[in-house]
Amino acid sequence: MKKNHFGSLIVIAMALIIGVTACTPTEESVELTDEQIDNIVRRSFQYVAMYNVINKGAMMEQNPMMTGWNGTFAAMGLQDHNAKGIARPNNDTIYVVSVLDLRHEPVIVHYPVFDSKFVCLETSAYDHYCDVPLSTTEGDFKEPTKILYYSARTKGYSGEPVEGVGTIMEMSGDFVVAFLRVMPHATEPERLKKNLAAMQEVKAQTLSEFLGKPVQPVDRGEFPPYNTDPGIYENNFLEVMQFVVNHTTFDANNEMDNAFLAAMKPLGVAPGKAFAPENVATIDGAKLSAVAKKIITNSVTIWNNPEGNVYLNDVFKPKGEMKFDAMVLQSSYGPIGLPSHQAVYPGVSTSDGEPMNAQHDYVIRMSKDEMPPSKAFWSATVYDAINGFFIPNEGKKYSVGENAGMKLNDEGGIEIYVSAEKPEGIPAENWLPIIRKDEGLDVVMRIYAPDLEKLKTWRAPKAEKIK
Question: Alpha-carbon distance 137 to 390, whole Å?
Fold first, then answer.
């Protein structure tokens, strides 16, 4: 039995034990310097990003993968351009998503056997540290598995064994996303059918349901509204941050935790407080939002650096392994990815050094020797650069790869075309359609189960402008 414990951590949000403390009204206008605003936004981006991801996953009706709290969504195919719950979603694996509220009792999720070259379970709370409890790269998914999730604030439970459950995980927050990425083997109909059926077997149960006990109705209370990340900063930043700190476990010895709480304190946000406008400072949300937008733009530039993303192997790691700049980058560019031993996400820059734009067409060429060093599979996906969404098109073609379709040339290499019209003589599998307009484009590669030794010398291809 594996356990993740936070016994040495300071448990925040003691409100659930001793009651939320009332606050003396302290509202005042705070004049923040540009340096302070930058620090506040950078320190909080991980929490803003994951608040949106988790809460949209549970409650956003327009999100095709909405689960409800303690529910599970298993997709029946690859995502399309209606997927707007998260920036830069993938179109090469199929998601099975469980979004959990651990305040009232533990939740147990059942995971079946899969017949796939790559399946990975990833978890995160509002703090955006990423853990991988199960993966085919570690020999998992050969036997059915049950994982019990709880937090330091889960009522009436503190990590004791439960018969029939092999893995118990203490999470760093009360609200959690636990999701599978499954390589569906879309070109193998029988294998695809088998995996799609297995995905439907994933289910979440409260501990009461698992034990066959009566389940009591739960009043989940009010959640601050979710939004875009810049929208949170502009409209309800302090309300969201107060909610976040009341439902997160922080470590007194962790530098990033301490720096975040220190940035929040002068604004009237601290663990255990009840949010009310009169209890927090008055801040200029428009200024925070403007800084957030600049950070997002800068993150796209860093990710698509022609010389390579220097943080490529540093993102999406567990707590204790993440560095601050890498955390800001992963949170502002596209939350919830895999650590480098599971997958890497190199950006594709251009041969002329200019940002890609839908006013032009491009070709991405790789010879046989230049193909991505993957032990499982790889893909290349095009997005709009601002929102990180798929480009709408009738054929629902957003990626090139083994699952979305591709054709190698006679020498074993490939040419991928990013263009408004399919070039004559080019296989449709290798075409990424765009809409001709003045819009920034962003092409991301995904390399699953990468050969880390070969990755040291491999370089992502560059897009060549052809029109």
Answer: 28
Neighbouring C-beta atoms of residue 214, cutoff 10 Å:
6
Residues 6+ apart with CB under 8 A from 392: 81, 435
pLDDT tens digits, one per residue of 77-115: 777 787 766 778 788 888 999 999 999 999 999 999 999
Q: Can you tell me the distance from the alpha carbon of 420 to that of 428, in angstroms, rounded to the nearest whole number?
A: 13
**Mean pLDDT computed over 59-80:** 86
pTM of the model: 0.85
Task: For 439-467, give one letter per residue: b (16+ CB within 10 A) or e.
Answer: eebbbbbbbbbbeeeebeebebbebeeee
For 108-155, write each residue's pLDDT tens digit. 999 999 999 999 999 999 999 999 999 999 999 999 999 999 999 999
The DSSP line for 364-398 is EEE-GGGS--BSS-EEEEEEETTT--BPP-TT---
96's tokens: 């099975």
Contact 377, 183 (CB under 8 A): yes
Domains and CATH numbers, the chain: 13-335 (2.60.40.1610), 346-465 (2.60.120.600)
In three-state secondary structure terms, 39 is helix
